[in-house]
Amino acid sequence: MSAETQLEKERHEELLASFANQGFLVRLGARIVDLAVGRCLIELPFGPDVTQHHGFFHGGAVGAIADAAGGYAGMTVLADGLGALTLEYKINFVRPAAGKKIVADAQVLRAGRSVMLTRVDVYAEGQSRYLCAAMQQTIMRAQQ
Amino acid sequence: MSAETQLEKERHEELLASFANQGFLVRLGARIVDLAVGRCLIELPFGPDVTQHHGFFHGGAVGAIADAAGGYAGMTVLADGLGALTLEYKINFVRPAAGKKIVADAQVLRAGRSVMLTRVDVYAEGQSRYLCAAMQQTIMRAQQ
Amino acid sequence: MSAETQLEKERHEELLASFANQGFLVRLGARIVDLAVGRCLIELPFGPDVTQHHGFFHGGAVGAIADAAGGYAGMTVLADGLGALTLEYKINFVRPAAGKKIVADAQVLRAGRSVMLTRVDVYAEGQSRYLCAAMQQTIMRAQQ
Amino acid sequence: MSAETQLEKERHEELLASFANQGFLVRLGARIVDLAVGRCLIELPFGPDVTQHHGFFHGGAVGAIADAAGGYAGMTVLADGLGALTLEYKINFVRPAAGKKIVADAQVLRAGRSVMLTRVDVYAEGQSRYLCAAMQQTIMRAQQ
Fold this sequence. Notes:
The structure is a homotetramer of 144-residue chains.
Chain A: H1 9-20, H2 23-28, E1 31-36, E2 39-45, H3 59-75, E3 82-93, E4 101-111, E5 115-125, E6 129-143
Antiparallel strand pairs in A: 1-2, 2-4, 3-6, 4-5, 5-6
């Protein structure tokens, strides 16, 4: 990722406030760690509420933060007051996600008039950092 | 769905025990409500831990129970002691999920030697019952 | 599939005429064999132009008729003069497609205001008939 | 894309020979224009056999060369004599594909023991060059 275009302060705060209302994500422990025009990073620390039966991060948690990162990346290119609905996504799980946290890194590939396409890479971070999942997602402009 | 083939008691209990170890799903409140050969139903009651900012079920929760239902449907056609890993899935969100609960209804479409294909419909149930999401999922045989 | 709702004659002819303008599909040898409200069947006979290196139907040909069947199924629920654009689809190839022809059977799962969801099953037909691919597709209303 | 690792000459020729046996792709006019370890570019010139009713490249042709590019990218990381089967893919069409040709640019994201993940971007090239489609694909090692 090269130079990022900074997001306007007002929109930045509006999107953080929107995220704070997402009961599901907040209770999991997810938080936005970066927002720029066309990009969003969300991280989720490890803990008993986000695991599956082998002690890895659960695929449902991986999918949830990837979906959220794509949606918020999309919202960074929209005007104030506009939100985004996920129409659909597709996710590949490429390695078990182990470590202290997972980070979803989303970028807008194409912002059309009514529909946007994002790609999201999810990394597991601990002693090493590696790709654990990859998503391609379609979102739709909507009233927030 | 017509007549279902009942699952052997031992495998049934093994799969319920496996599900009980899924911290992420259990803490959300999800539970398996039906298991037959090639089929699994999982339901998730409404509550503050599973919502998004408009008070609907969060897409992350919808995706998580759909993925789980597909995986457990796949495991019903495997021998005792075998599990299933999600390679990938694709989910379409077709209506906001509102109501007392959501139910993911998964069926195995094709059980290959190493890879299986499932389809999962997720319904929202309250005063009415309607399709809120549809998934197509690839899972792989694995040691549990 | 239970009873189908017949398509109005005018719309039926309009859609067949639209299909006849699809150079790519026509030259492959694909043709619409059934159209009803919310449903479309397209078949493709076997031949040297549709094969891969083992002599099976090529995945590209399988994907193309599945995509087309979903799109035309979607158009059956739209008003005269309206068309449909494929936003995206996802296809699983579950068995090599061998036989005299393949048939894509598409149904509309949900017709929203601007976006529609279809599911398409592709069968190989020869001495036996079996599922060779399964698609889930998002299409968007558009001027034809 | 930074520096590429060149493919061994023998494998390079083996893969071009395999492609030459793909009746469907060859008759469309598709050809491999670059092969490196983990990467494949396939291009398709414009013509009446690859269009839809508005004169753009048909989605079926776009999907077919994207799928092929992903598959051959995957095969570049396999040993001689090994091939790859497409398990599934998902493709988003982001703009109508117009121009003199389309080019599918595929990269291997993750090469697992039995399954590989690729991403493919398809560009339309004429007076300008722009992204027209994006694919995420799962392929499986197989005997060629």
